[in-house]
Structure to design on (132 residues):
């Protein structure tokens, strides 16, 4: 596991344990033994190799799998490409850029009909006013 610090420095670390605390992950690294040492990791990015990622349940996806997918309607009309994901707490919102517009698509069952990684598409059932 590599840690990328805001300064650009990289450091290899081994994870001692991981636990979930109210929706956040608490990660303990070997060799980090105090709050002061842990504070040095703030704003750092943890890089995990693909083969070390845990499998997700059916119909759950990593953000990196969603960003870049093409959003289309059931009729096949292309809306745009997912450029970013905003986490709101209750549900994610996909920022879709296309045809000179930006759309905010809520990632909820009523709107997202299908996410198909093999075809690179997300089919949406747009609610009234969503694409205006």
């Amino acid at each position: 596991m590599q840690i990328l610090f805001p300064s650009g420095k990289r450091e290899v670390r081994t994870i001692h344990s991981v636990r979930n605390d109210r929706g956040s992950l608490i990660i303990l690294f070997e060799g980090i033994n105090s709050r002061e040492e842990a504070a040095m990791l703030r704003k750092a990015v943890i890089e995990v190799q693909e083969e070390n990622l845990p499998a997700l349940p059916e119909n759950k996806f990593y953000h990196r799998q969603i960003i870049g997918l093409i959003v289309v309607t059931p009729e096949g009309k292309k809306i745009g490409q997912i450029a970013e994901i905003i986490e709101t707490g209750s549900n994610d919102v996909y920022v879709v850029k296309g045809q000179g517009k930006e759309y905010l698509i809520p990632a909820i069952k009523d709107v997202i009909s299908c996410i198909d990684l093999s075809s690179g598409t997300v089919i949406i059932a747009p609610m009234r006013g969503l694409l205006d």
